Amino acid sequence: MKKLRTIIIRFIKRNPLYTSINFTGLVIGFVCVVFIGLWIKNELSYDRFHKNADQIYRVHRYFYDNNGTENLHLPYVAPPVAPLLKDEFSEIENIARVAHSGMLFRLNDQKVAEPDVCFAEPDILNIFSFEGISADNDLLNEPLTAVISATIASKYFNNEYAVGKTMEFFDENANSYNLKVTGVFNDWGQNNHFRPEIVISFSTYASAVGESELQDWGSNNYETFVLMRNVPQQLDSRLDEFINKQFENGTSWTKIRMEKLADIHFNWYGSRSSIYVLLSIAVLILLLGSINYINLNTAIYTKRIKEIQIKKVIGATAKRILSLLMLESVLFCIFSLIVALLIVSVAIPYLANLFNSNLAFSVGENLSLIAVFFTLSIFIGLISGVYPAKILLTSKKYNSTPGKMSFRNGMVIFQFFVSIALIMSFLTVNKQLNYLNTKNLGLNQENVITVSASPNHIEKLYVLREQLTKNPNIIDVSGSKRIPSQRLADSNQMKASNNGKMEPLGFRVANIRGDEHFVSTYEMKLIAGNNISPQTKEEKEYLVNRSAVEKIGWESPEAAIGQFVEYGDEKGRIVGVLENFNYESLHNAVFPIILYKDASSYNRISIRVTPSNLSNTIEFIKTTWQQYDLAGSPFSYQFIDERFERLYQSEKYTKTIFTCFMVLAISIAILGLIGLSLFVMERRTKEIGVRKVNGAKVSEILSMLNKDFVKWVAIAFVIATPIAWFAMNKWLENFAYRTNLSWWIFALSGLMALGIALLTVSWQSWRAATRNPVEALRYE
After folding, report:
1. Whole-number pLDDT of residue 392
2. What DSSP string runs through 422-445?
3. How far apart are the C-alpha atoms of 311 and 317, rounded to whole Å?
4. pLDDT in tens, 164-194
5. Taking the CB of residue 580, how many other CB atoms lie within 10 A of it?
6. How far apart (Å, rounded) are the C-alpha atoms in residues 336 and 32?
7. What is the pTM of this model?
8. Each residue's pLDDT tens digit, 46-56
9. Which of 569, 567, 525 is nearest to 546 (CA)?
10. Interior CA angle at 509 toward 505 and 510, to 5°?
């Protein structure tokens, strides 16, 4: 081993530049693999904390048009589903409804908003792992009882024993209630989609909302969890039978399904495709580093042919020499991995922030993953050492002339292929993001502030509006049930007049409940008729969008004016038609929408402001809002344009990912080109000297030395273009509104790769071409 260490050190000293290039490429590759390995492990750990994770399911619901097209998919279901399912399926051991709600609690002399509060049925304690408390149904049996997390217990009771004590909370009308703490459970951690801090008995909620709410099949606001160890055969068919028992031919318009707890994160919040994409990119980056290692080692090993021949003469067997060469390669890769692990351990907080992840790196918690990394490094070392060692042992003269296609040239082409494909992907993602940020939504989301609204705010909305608009920086104020950037999840059955008869429509029409200022606050375009009247009229007034007019079949927006409709059993007339607008993310197409007044449902206030003097305007809004807030809630606000931006966070992280990996891939390719071109120039020194003596011009020598690199880029470009076009076209299919794949994206990517290659190689070619031919002829 000591002799091997001496050989390796001597080899590094003789070839410092080549060794540095090899080492840097492998370290970059291993850093990518380690980081992405940690990220994938983190993603796969979501909701795995619970003992029964593999037996826990969540019930979700689909809605369909008459033609069978899915028009809505909700993660929550109606409240009657849970008790009926329990009666229908004997396989269900436990089932629990959960209603989520932010609550206001008293902490010392202040009122504090707690966002992670839910009302849950007693079985919730048997379904999930509430470590620290027993799975005792009595803990959540009585009204005004709750189990709380250790963090909440510490916050409200200063590390004192919390069980049996009370917490004071407030409803929207400032009525206070005392909540008895019946248990304290250990904190769950971040990697759970369902992370309650305070779990209040469902009976508390039931007494507040009443029995009619709990029998309402249209109130799909309840997250419903099931513990089922023995899943029945043909579960989906039995669920369809269950729905058809509740409604005649019910599955023609709605269905329920069960999804595993471990699948929820990927189905609703993350993406399995992201794992495959990132893993593929990490492997490609590691391959690029390995290719550099193979190429440069193959080049360097030709200098060791004499050394190997001497060893053979003195009795060394081919097997022993091969073992030593392979051991060198494996040790080099292992050392590169160790350095990569050190880099990741230092950089992980910055990387986690960059990719919006809660990643952390601890050797003790990742021993199995680290073992996989070391196994991978050994495998890479063996694979990367085979080809150079084979050339060295067979003592074949290494072909340094790049004109002839070879395995080495193929690997260089592969490096350019990956780099070009990543550049194309980056440019496409960037173009789509620019498109999303600049597309006209049909409404103006700029300079609109939204705040929550209590019942008192809505009751005094007209007075509140008058008071707010006295400020010259406030243009308009509106109350509504939902705001742009939220899902259009509310709908009712709609009927339209056809030859004097009201007939149900065979498709979903989503509703927006807003006052007469909603259209002006968001600067929507009225293309026919008038806005909703501010006065309350006997006949209901409706606005619809152009999409609704077209799908219903009215000849034009003007023809829709005055038409009788019935929406949710309320008859009325169409008084106006709005131009189509994107209320949701641009991932979704515009669909039929109806807008009408329903003050009892409003829970948000939207305020259009001027962009000047924003801080004073916000302070004025806060002061005015607090005058009508009976509960004393903390004031919070959001800008609508910022809410829209958050809808595209996934795409922004995709852009960041492609940017980082594109830079890394190009960096590795450049390092490889530097090393390879240095070796080529070194091997062709005498040839260049002879050509110069025979009258060759510098430009001719530059052309001779560079033409093969240009050819490699061209081949890589031809391979990368169709593959990148296909991949990016599939990615763009995720958007209802998308940019086109312009020809310049592919042309620019090829030119960038060519420019990088020529800049990298040309300076060395220039040095070789301008060298004194006498010195060149003395070489070797």
Report:
1. 64
2. HHHHHHHHHHHHHHHHHS--SS--
3. 8
4. 999 999 988 788 999 999 999 999 988 888 9
5. 21
6. 12
7. 0.83
8. 899 899 999 99
9. 525
10. 160
Burial code (b: 16+ CB inside 10 Å, e: under 16) for 528-544 equals bbebbeeeeeeebbbbb
Cβ–Cβ under 8 Å, residues 62 and 263: no
Q: Which pLDDT score is estimated for 387?
A: 72
Instruction: List, in order, residues 6 or more apart from 746 with CB less than 8 Å away.
Output: 424, 721, 724, 725
From the CB of residue 616, how many other CB atoms can be counted at a distance below 10 Å? 11
Query: Do residues 36 and 29 make contact, with C-beta atoms less than 8 angstroms apart?
Result: no
- CB contact at 8 A, 308 and 321: yes
Q: So what's the pLDDT on residue 403?
A: 45
Q: How far is CA 371 from CA 26, 47, 290, 341, in A?
A: 18, 24, 20, 12
Residue whose pair of structure tokens reads 């919040």 in the numeric block: 269
Sequence-ordered strand ranges (E) for 197-341: 198-201, 223-227, 254-260
What pLDDT score does 1 carry?
Answer: 56
Q: Give pLDDT, residue 40.
A: 87
712 token code pair: 């490699």
Q: Which of 465, 581, 466 is nearest to 522 (CA)?
A: 581
Q: Cβ(457)–Cβ(625) under 8 Å?
A: yes
- CA dist list (Å): 186 to 44, 133, 413: 22, 8, 55
Residue type, 462: Y
Which segments of the chain have a pLDDT < 50?
A: 397-405
